[in-house]
Amino acid sequence: MGLYEKRVIRYILALSFVPGEDDESGVNVNPYTKYKLYELLVSPPFGAASLKKVVANMKNTIKNLYTAEAFIDNVKDDVEKNNLKEQFNCQKDLYDQELKPILKDPDKLFAKLTSDVFVRLNHSVADEFERIKREAQAKS
């Protein structure tokens, strides 16, 4: 696994382990244990090919997230930097809000992570992080 594939897995794990978090309905959600999530991702209907597809779909998003964040840190003007950080944080929060419910429902995990909707979500979020990166690069 390459650097960004590992970052995708860590990102999924980080979003999966939020202790004491309530979902939108107010029902307390029990976070996965590391082993439960691993068990879900390696058992049918998931498998190596499906997991590789999910990671590939998220890889560009996570790569653009990290590079946008790095370019924002290089912006000299504090006002511009804060504006870009706000855009970045807003986009990241939206992505996390879309991803967390998917990870909280083990019965729908495979269907959601391998759906066209998930692929489109990752493309649009990756494009937005790319736009933020280019804007930060222009202001560096």
Description:
The structure is a single chain. With 140 residues, this protein is mainly alpha-helical. The chain has one domain. The chain has helices at residues 3-16, 34-42, 48-73, 78-104, 109-113, 116-139. Helix 3 runs antiparallel to helix 4 (78-104). Mean pLDDT is 81; it is low at 25-29.
Number of domains: 1
Helix/strand order, N-terminal first: HHHHHH
Radius of gyration: 16 Å
Arithmetic mean of pLDDT: 81
**Globular, elongated, flat, extended or rod-shaped: what is the shape?**
elongated
- Please tally the helical runs, counting DSSP H or I stretches of 4 or more residues: 6
Low-confidence stretches: 25-29
Give a quick account of the main beta sheet: strands, pairing sense, barrel closure: none
> Span from first to last CA?
32 Å
- The helix fraction, in percent, is over 70%
Approximately what portion of the residues adopt beta-strand conformation?
Answer: under 5%
Count of DSSP E strands?
0
Structural class: mainly alpha
Write a concise keyword list for the protein shown above.
plasmid, mainly alpha, 6 helices, 140 residues, elongated
What's a concise summary of this model?
With 140 residues, this protein is mainly α. 75% of the residues lie in helices and 0% in strands.
